[in-house]
Amino acid sequence: MNVSFPRLICFIALTFFAVPAIAQSLPFKTLLKTTYDKDFPLVYPEQKDLLEEAVILDTREREEYSVSHLESAQWVGYETFSMESVSEISKDETIVVYCSIGARSQEIGKKLKAAGYQHVYNLYGGIFHWVNEENPVVTPNSDRTDRVHTYNKMWGVWLNKGEKVY
Questions:
Q1: What is the rounded CA–CA span in Å between residue 51 and residue 4?
Q2: Is the CB of residue 123 less than 8 Å from the CB of residue 105?
Q3: Superfamily assignment of 39-165 in CATH?
Q4: pLDDT in tens, 130-149
Q5: Could you give the CA distance from residue 108 to residue 30 in angstroms, rounded to a whole number?
Q6: What are residue 109's phi and psi, to 5 degrees?
Q7: From CA 11, how far away is CA 64, in angstroms rounded?
Q8: pLDDT tens digits for 79-99?
Q9: Alpha-carbon Rg of the chain, whole angstroms?
Q10: Of 137, 111, 134, 135, which is closest to residue 40 (Cα–Cα)?
Q11: Which of 77, 121, 128, 155 is positioned for an S-S bond with 43, CB 3.0–4.6 A?
Q12: Is-contact 32 155, C-beta < 8 A?
């Protein structure tokens, strides 16, 4: 096969820039599969009805929440989480917890279930998947933003849309 040098360069450039965007979803899905417990219920961004009726709890750290969060999210934290922060929520309410990808929120969700909260879900893929699916996030002043705190640079590889903040 006789390929000209300019065509070869174009092919390499297209492969280099296009493949990571396409291929990243499979590694991300694989990461999530190994992160989530099979018996802990998930809710997906497209399940708008459930999300609109739920109490949304952000289990990331305060600095992450302060950059952006889901519009109706209440900050409860992870390292500083206490059951007192959710004491005003009825144990019959539907609750959705989230963090960057879902690991920290799953742990908080387990604590909620152990405390008697009955309808607790983990947001699939966390705020990263939420933003990657082009769903909105807001600042503490309720202004829409593209900025997302990625916890650190290593975890930031999973955020494909928006502006990464470390």
A1: 53
A2: yes
A3: Rhodanese-like domain (3.40.250.10)
A4: 999 999 999 999 999 999 99
A5: 22
A6: -60, -40
A7: 39
A8: 999 999 999 999 999 999 999
A9: 19
A10: 111
A11: 121
A12: no
